[in-house]
Structure to design on (161 residues):
């Protein structure tokens, strides 16, 4: 589900008729069905009406506040679920060594894939040939580590880069 980012300085987020609306100088500049939003980010001098805040909290939608320059200020978080059955199931999965290994492999593979693509991008953007060669070499090392991670028999065999 999408995140609603409020960046227009002086704008106001409101809620009416099942929709979240953004107004600037009393003119509506954006409107979306409220059920489509799962997170709100307010950047700088943005206002949120009491009715919109009540809707966000009642529907479990977290709201983050940033300065105009993107520094994190804080967040408004709805109460956490007290679903004991879910928590017990999560802890049981965490105790399963096969699940832990599969989960760790997936995380490491995703991170290495991202790193691999960053090396390739760096190589394409490099002006000097030695920088392109270094990027290519780094990408090959990351690709090798990614293939090793798929074959890891336990957590200690996962590559660390």
């Amino acid at each position: 589900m999408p995140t609603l980012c409020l960046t227009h300085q002086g704008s106001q987020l409101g809620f009416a008729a099942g929709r979240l609306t953004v107004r600037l100088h009393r003119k509506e500049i954006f409107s979306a069905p409220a059920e489509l939003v799962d997170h709100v980010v307010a950047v700088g001098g943005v206002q949120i009406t009491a009715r919109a805040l009540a809707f966000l909290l009642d529907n479990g939608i977290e709201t983050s506040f940033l300065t105009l320059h993107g520094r994190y200020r804080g967040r408004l978080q709805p109460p956490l679920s007290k679903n004991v059955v879910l928590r017990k199931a999560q802890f049981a999965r965490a105790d399963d060594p096969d699940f832990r290994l599969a989960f760790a492999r997936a995380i490491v593979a995703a991170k290495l894939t991202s790193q691999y693509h960053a090396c390739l991008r760096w190589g394409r953007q490099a002006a000097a040939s030695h920088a392109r060669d270094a990027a290519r070499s780094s990408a090959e090392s990351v690709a090798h580590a990614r293939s090793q991670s798929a074959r890891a028999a336990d957590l200690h065999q996962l590559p660390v880069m």
User: Anything to note?
Assistant: Residues 97-125 form the longest helix (29 residues).
